[in-house]
Amino acid sequence: MIARKRVEVFKPSIDTRYSDDEIVSHGDLRMHSQVVANAGEITERIDWRSEVVGIDEANFMGPQLVDVAQRLADSGKQVIVAGLDTDYLAGPSAHPDLLALSDPSPRRSPFACAAATRPSTRSGCAVPTS
Asked: What domains can be seen in the chain, in order of their start residue?
């Protein structure tokens, strides 16, 4: 429960950087999350009594994410989706249509890495040069 609302959070199974079963902020704040292989599993595993549904790392959730998020919102849930809106080349993310469907909200810049001195403008990717 957060702010007297039943909250449930989902993250992709591929994201094991900081924890296998928690979402973790860069400041090390942690929250338990359901781990799913793809967005389709969310509707199978959700507790439908939840009022707020968080989905982390949207770019790894697969093509069903838009339909799943819309179904959750249509059922009266507040849906919060976190993910990148561009790839490392500044091209559109895997789910640009989520932005079109979402309520207007402030856009947040990705956190800077530990070596950076200002907020980043895109994600990083190691690309072989040869």
From this structure: 7-101 (3.40.50.300)
